[in-house]
Sequence to fold (415 residues):
Amino acid sequence: MKAFRYQAVELNGSPVKGEIEAADRRSALQLLGARGLFPSVLENCAPTGETAARPVLTPPQHAGAVRVGGRVSGKDITAFTREMGALLGASIPIPQALDGLGEEEENLALRAIVLKIADSVRKGAALSAALEEHPKLFSKLYISMVRVGEEAGVLPKVMTDLAELLEHEDELRGEVMAAVAYPVFVLCFGFVTVTVLLTVVMPKLFSMLTEMATTLPLPTVILLRVSGFIQNYWIPIVVGAAGAIGGLRWYLRSPRGAEKWDGVKLALPVLGGVYRAAALSRFARTLGTLARSGVSLLPALKIVENTIGNLVLGKLIAQVAEETRGGDSLAAPLRKLGIFPKTVVQMISVGEESGMLPEMLLKVADIEERHMRARTKTMISLLAPALILVVGALVGFMVIALLLPIFNMSQALEK
Fold:
């Protein structure tokens, strides 16, 4: 346990000072908040012969001392959201909570951003407005939910709900990445293997074979020409591939290209079902979380429209929002547009009638996520062996093309 000296303000506005023991500064802030105290200064009690530690809640002392560096990941934002919700739930003011999190943050890049947000809030900006200054880290959904929590006076609850949503998305993303890691490894390994064989190994062997044999079998000729083409024109091939990839990325980032690609993803034979289930589970979970946090249906649909991650489905959600504006329930336009399966629409309808729409939407999200996991496992279980077969077939063709001239020469020698 460590001892901390504090200066704080009570609920009635009276100043108070004293000392408190806690495991760390964050725990000290939580204990003071639980006592109804709002600290303005919190510092370590210095041992005898040492100077006291610098106050951790004075913003000018932090801002200049922070080094910017590193990368802020989604898991860092999730952890920040969870801890922020806990501190606000302990009635700690927003600037003090941000100062405490910033001081304890190990990621220097996130530390600088958190302290900058704390400085903006201290100068009078709302937390949502301060977060809006960092759009690369905090999404539209994140900022919208924080703004709703501020307006409704339930920011601690909203931050907790948002943390649960982010944690769930992180877990789901981790499962998908783990599932596709092996097929990606097989594909990369096969590409490197075939490239090395065609550009390094085969040319040396073929030069020897062409000297020993006057005529070569068709597989050997094909492989010889492919290898020679790659050797002679590898610079144009690399430049052309890089240009094609760059042009494709530019097109897919344009509004028209992005919408076309989103439509193609939904229409793919196997992957289409995975993309659709992922988008619909995100729709249901986000809408359910917003509704549980007190956001009315129409603004929640507008938020989901911009955060569903698929422009084609986003336009359909916009149509749902327009029909809902006219007084229709959520289930009626969903049934008309055919976005969800009939059983799911029926669950949403029951949720509306029973007044348990948020809970029912979260159940729908669980159903769609189970479907997505099942389809992903099926796809991976088929994809990995298929890639192994493709790589094996390419390598086998090369071996056969290499061995055929040797067999022909051995037969000619026997005769």
About this structure: The longest strand covers residues 2-9. The beta strands are 2-9, 15-22, 38-44. The chain has two domains: 1-123, 169-415.
